[in-house]
Amino acid sequence: MERGHQDDFDRQDRIEVRANGPLEGAVAIGGAKNSVLKLMAACLLTEGTFVIRNVPDIHDVAVMADVLRAMGVSVSRVGDALTIERPEAIIPEAPYALTEQLRASTAVLGPLLAGIGHARVALPGGDDFGPRPIDMHIAGLEAIGCRFEISGGDVHAAADNLVGNSVLLEYPSVGATENVMMAAVRAKGTTVIDNAAREPEIADLAGFLNHMGGHVIGAGTSTITVDGVEELRPVEYTVVSDRIEAATFMAALGVATGEITLVGARLDHMAILCRKLGEMGVRTSSDPDGVWAMCSGRLRSADVSTLPYPGLPTDCKPLLVAMLSVAEGVGIVTENLFSGRFRYVDELVRMGADIRTEGHHAVIRGVDRLSGAPVRASDIRAGAALVVAGLAADGITVVSDPHHIDRGYEDFAGKLSALGADVCHERPGD
Ligand code: UD1
Q1: CB 3.0-4.6 Å disulfide test: which of 135, 179, 362, 405 passes with 383?
Q2: Is 127 assigned a catalytic role?
Q3: Nearest residue CA, atom 29 of ligand 1?
Q4: How does pLDDT run across 300-318, given as a tens digit for each residue?
Q5: Residue 329: DSSP 8-state
Q6: Which stretches does DSSP call E strand in 213-255?
Q7: 3-30+241-426 against 33-238: fold identical
Q8: Residue pair 213/233 in contact by the 8 Å Cβ criterion
Q9: Model-wide pTM > 0.85
């Protein structure tokens, strides 16, 4: 590399990884990103002071806090607890400058409609996985009395009277299920959401709403019944543990081998994933502290197909592809949720992986070792997968754009290092 380019590279925020033998010890799994963002939105439902505990210190939470602040809500953090004070009057608007950074900010729609009766939310647009429409959110909310108009890139929404109704989702969309639940909780009468998403984060949101005085029954199954109530109250609540963060450390264990405890993790939220990991050679079991996991030899290949919960999570796919890159044999991975989620594959190939993609499928022939290389993170899980791959590579892997990883992981490099990995997050500005 020429000196000028080398200097630029040295100034960049990056994660450096070197293989360093088996992982050992305990790692604390934080609260689920995909739950806490929705709980924060749900605080818009009523005036008062909420406290949410077990909140990971990640960039997406910081952006959601900014979304709330832009509405006039106060958000402060002490340790792992967020205090959210929602005043009586708020500005029910989410600007593009924030929604484009965080697609999950569309979760404010339901609570704003139920809590204030109108909202203006900038459409966030697509991302690296492909288009991210919100047509099902809108259809579900329309069914209970909301009206929508899209102009100037914004969704303008209003609801004078929310009235319970049957909502049949075309697909078990996580975001649509949550938005309808958060609006229906204040509707007049009963809403029945059929073909609802079943993720543990949906059950966590239902727990939060019920704590507030809502009546949500059946969350975690594909039929959710919401009996509207007239009043809700602010609450204190602890976020469910992050199954995708837990899966990330199990993937790291798979490529590095070793024995670890995932403190606070829930095996019951990862049943199909753990069965697949078992096929590949990672043993897991429930532990009084969370989940115990061990891997003692080279991984074996397996076929993988992503599906809505309780199926294999699409968010785990890049991690599984990284594992299959060094497993013995050939594995076929099929993506069923998002149209294009294989961008990180080119980076793994640069590290010596043998992967071919065709539409929704990837065929991965495991190689003995990868070779460390400069690679670029393109989203949260793809970035984490590149770090995981670096644990099975000769030489140094340098992952640039690690801000994608910071969106969803609190101190990822620090937690891996504490397990014995040689991973360092270089922040030249620090
Ligand atoms: C959530 C998670 C994300 C995870 C995904 C699937 C958060 C913040 N994000 O995203 O990490 O990968 O669930 O488990 O919780 N769709 C439509 N129209 C809609 C809504 C969705 O066509 O109105 C499509 C999407 O483009 C996608 C599929 O349905 O192809 C799944 O989306 P959905 O379940 O809604 O995922 P998110 O809530 O966006």
Answers
A1: 405
A2: yes
A3: 173
A4: 999 999 999 999 999 999 9
A5: S
A6: 215-217, 223-227, 236-238
A7: yes
A8: yes
A9: yes
Bridge partners of 130, per DSSP, are 127
* DSSP result, 254-318: HHH-EEEEEET--GGGSHHHHHHHHHHT-EEEEETTEEEEEE-S--B---EEB-STTSB-GGGHH
- CB 9 within 8 Å of CB 397: no
Token look-up 């991973």 returns 423
Tell me the CA–centroid distance for residue 173 and ligand 1, in Å: 5
Q: Are 105 and 63 in contact (CB under 8 A)?
A: yes
Q: Which residue has the tokens 């909502």?
A: 167
For the chain, what's the residue count? 430
Q: At residue 321, what is the residue type?
A: V
Return the domain boundaries, the chain: 3-30+241-426, 33-238
CA-closest candidate to residue 423, choices 16, 19, 14: 16
CATH number of this structure's domain 3-30+241-426: 3.65.10.10
Q: Encoding tokens for residue 182?
A: 């958060």
Asked if residue 278 has pLDDT above 50, the reply is: yes
Give domain 33-238's CATH number out of 3.65.10.10, 3.40.50.720, 3.30.1540.10, 3.40.830.10. 3.65.10.10
Atom number in ligand 1 closest to CA 201: 15
Per residue in 198-239, pLDDT (tens digit) is 999 999 999 999 999 999 999 999 999 999 999 999 999 999
Identify the helix (H) or strand (E) that includes residue 339: none
C-alpha span between 246 and 358 (Å, rounded): 29
**What's the distance, CA 105 to chain centroid?**
13
Pairing status of strand 283-287 against strand 290-295: antiparallel
Centroid of ligand 1 to alpha carbon of 166 (angstroms): 21
